Amino acid sequence: MDDFLRDFIIKKWKIGSLSFTFLDALLAVCITGTGIFLRLPVMSYTETGVEKIGAIVLEYLLAVLCGAIVHRCTGSRNRAFLTYAILVIYPTVAANGALWNVNAVYYVILFFVGFYLYIRGFRFLGALSGLAGAVIAVCRMRQGWLDASVSMNVDYPQTLTFGWPNFYEIIPKGAFVNLFDKVFILFLLGLLFTLAYCFVKKKVQITPDLALRLFLFLAVLIPYFAPYMPAWAGYTADIAALLYFMRWKERFYIPMLHLIVSYSAYANVINGETKLPMVLYSVILLGILVNVGVDLYKEADS
Amino acid sequence: MNKKTEKHGFLKFDRADLLYLAALTVIGLAIRLILRVVTTDDWAMYWDPWISDLKEMGFSYLATDRYDYTPTFVYILWVISKLPINPMTAYKGLHIALDFVAAVIMGKIAWKVTGSRLKSITAYGLMLLVPTIWANSALWAQCDIIFMTFLLLCFYYFFEDRPCLAMFFFGMAFVFKLQSLFIFPFLVILWVNKKVQLKAFLWIPALYFLSIVPAWIAGRPLMELINIYMAQGAQDVWSLSIKWPNIYQIIGNQFFLLEYASSGTWLILGILMILMYAMAQKRYRITNEFIVQMALFFAILTPWFLPHMHERYGCVADILAIIYALMNVKKFYFPLVHILLSFNSYMAYLGQLRFNEPSIYYGVWAFVELGLLVLVGLDIWKYMKNPENQLAPVKKEAA
């Protein structure tokens, strides 16, 4: 009986082109359920409406999509499946929708759809999807700034970061707000131009691996220097870091650290206090940025 | 690469190059135009009243002891006082223009030391984005870009193997700012290694003397003009470190103010003597990278021990760190960390932190700076230990 069960759980089943084991199916069902049960207790913290429910559904779809991306990048069924499983219970993803009702998944999913289309060869559609995500992200964040200004009864924001532990945690975040918000957008633009220029001049071929490195690099870089970033500004990088780890397992610490930073930023805003100084997270993020930047440079230069 | 090819190659741009250069020039300019409206304490307390006095008194202002900067800088203010535009706009406009000149020189240096047009063009672009550069001129209304531009020219001509011209520009840098002396010991090492002749050092006192002659003629006593840097050093003595992360931010910058001010100066002089003694024992192959390593080492070391260092005194190390990274991409973290550290010190002043500590304490930054010092020191040590870089010894010990 024991041997029968042992064989049974790893026996491959085939439905059409899809093959899976009993263990796969068991985990798929259990983790999907766990994802739901993990969200249920925290849902009452904010109002639950169609938007939140829709976001949760999209979070599951995002997990499936990321599994597909990992499968595409690594060819490993196990890693793809693990990606789905981890993302379903990923703390920042679950908290963003179910607990906080921010529902950033509505635009974040477009970045990953874009990335998937890009590595499948549909470059124009991929870029279009990414652009659509970026436009929605900017609109959502702009609305957040306006709401914050109204709630604080101020004409202009008083701080350069709205919770994301970025560069402004290191320099005084309340200094020259009305000037630095423009200056650092230009600074960021300058960096992006430089990156694009180097890629064009070196005639770098964007392979799926390089695309993944670039994707994570930008997902960390942009919120690091962009002003008025909310606490959930690391949402995209959280997920991209997981994909990064699935592709290069020696970089296991990147999603781990990024997730800690990201959830600490959530906690700081939701709880109103932080156990460790936020500047520490800024330094960690800088370390991640440098690490991924060096990886990107090496890959592009090879 | 001969000189003709070199010059021709530097100016050969394709469409992507031109687009990048135009974009970064516009971005660099836009950043500075946004910041030009800020009026800082330095402007309100020094430059503005000085310019007002110059407007009122004309050139005879130079006879007074109301200014504690070198007369050369006051000549610039005198010219500004004559212009029919807002003095702050004129002042910042001049320094902003120099930011661009410095960026071009940085690009030329990159071309010279790497031969890569890509690196040369990106060096120009990135130089315009460096926060400590735009914050110094456009935001703070400071004038460090003047002497930094001359220092960049000094390095450029050392790389061109024209040491006399290089020393001329070092002399020009000294005419504007005493901080240029932070890297003076490396010039002595170059002299020991026959890279520069002793007579070229005469540029430093000669240019300084020439620069004070108009003020002397205007009526200010010669001794006062010669001692202007000494008088400068006697000010701002209320703290052993004025927001610069150095040893005093670790041991305490508010104690033994007078005692440590004196002892600290002797300490760094002693350290520099020992280092120069050790480095003068043998002759070394002087490469461009070794020049930058040494200059960067002294640019970090000297303010690390000297008392009364200001927030901006890392600016020489900032630009040297950029050149170092251009030469050796593995050293990319030098400019990254140093500029972050430097900008943090800038913001401690500009953000009106006054006596409060920044988010990352000065003491922590001081250790970071020490780390950079050790790393560049180790690079120099490895270079000097490599037999390939050692030339015939200066003296042979008796058997």
Strand-helix topology:
The complex is a heterodimer of chains A (302) and B (399).
Chain A: H1 2-10, E1 12-15, E2 18-21, H2 22-39, H3 50-74, H4 77-88, H5 91-99, H6 105-119, H7 123-151, E3 161-162, H8 167-170, H9 177-201, H10 208-225, E4 229-230, H11 235-247, H12 253-271, H13 278-301
Parallel strand pairs in A: 3-4
Antiparallel strand pairs in A: 1-2
Chain B: H1 3-10, H2 15-35, H3 41-57, H4 71-82, H5 87-114, H6 117-129, H7 131-139, H8 144-159, H9 163-176, H10 184-192, H11 203-218, H12 222-226, H13 228-233, H14 248-251, H15 257-279, H16 288-305, H17 315-327, H18 333-350, H19 362-385
Helix pairs in contact in B: 2-6, 2-7, 3-4, 5-6, 5-7, 5-8, 7-18, 8-9, 9-11, 10-16, 16-17, 16-19, 17-18, 18-19
Overall description:
- The complex is a heterodimer of chains A (302) and B (399).
- Chain A is mainly α and 302 residues long.
- Chain A has a domain at 159-302.
- Helices cover 73% and strands 4% of the residues of chain A.
- Chain A has 13 helices and four strands.
- Chain A has helices spanning 2-10, 22-39, 50-74, 77-88, 91-99, 105-119, 123-151, 167-170, 177-201, 208-225, 235-247, 253-271, 278-301, and strands at 12-15, 18-21, 161-162, 229-230.
- In chain A, helix 3 packs parallel to helix 11 (235-247) and helix 4 (77-88) runs antiparallel to helix 11 (235-247).
- In chain B, 46% of the residues are buried.
- Chain B has a domain at 236-392.
- The model of chain B has no long low-confidence stretch (mean pLDDT 92).
- The longest helix of chain B is centred in the first third of the chain and has 28 residues, at 87-114.
- Chain B is 69% helix and 0% strand.
- The interface between A and B is medium-sized, with 31 and 39 residues.
Short description:
The complex is a heterodimer of chains A (302) and B (399). With 302 residues, chain A is mainly alpha-helical.
